[in-house]
Amino acid sequence: MLLTKLTALFSGTKATSDETPLRALELSCAALMFEVARSDFTIDETERESIRLLLTENFALSGEDVATVTEEAADNVDAATCLFEFTRTINDIATVDQKRQLLTMMWRVALADDALSRYEEHVIRKVADLLYLPHHDFMLAKQLAR
What we know:
Elements: H1 4-10, H2 21-38, H3 45-59, H4 63-79, H5 84-93, H6 96-111, H7 118-130, H8 135-145
Helix pairs in contact: 2-3, 2-4, 2-5, 2-6, 2-7, 3-4, 3-6, 6-7, 6-8
């Protein structure tokens, strides 16, 4: 699992606004996946389902938790002014391997509707830069997603 170690590490720890670091990480990852999905000006149902599936697989969330996280993440994306507020949380909490896994997840969302747009690719490239990941990791994540 992507966050097994983080779950053990942060269980019971409270961040600001009663949000655990793990929940903040889940929300940030979900928000970035939503950002990819909406970057081509439409969020396809296959992209939404891909996000739900990725959250379930990688964060071991229940169906109810996935619904809560996706709803809150979508709201956060609508209110956000830039990607930095999401990538900052990930940089503070996640390991390099977890950041790489997030890129792969983002690519899977972008490829879910079988139509990769340049806007989706641009968002993923920008996130890779903000996560301080080299171009090699960006390309490897794309290959893994396919």
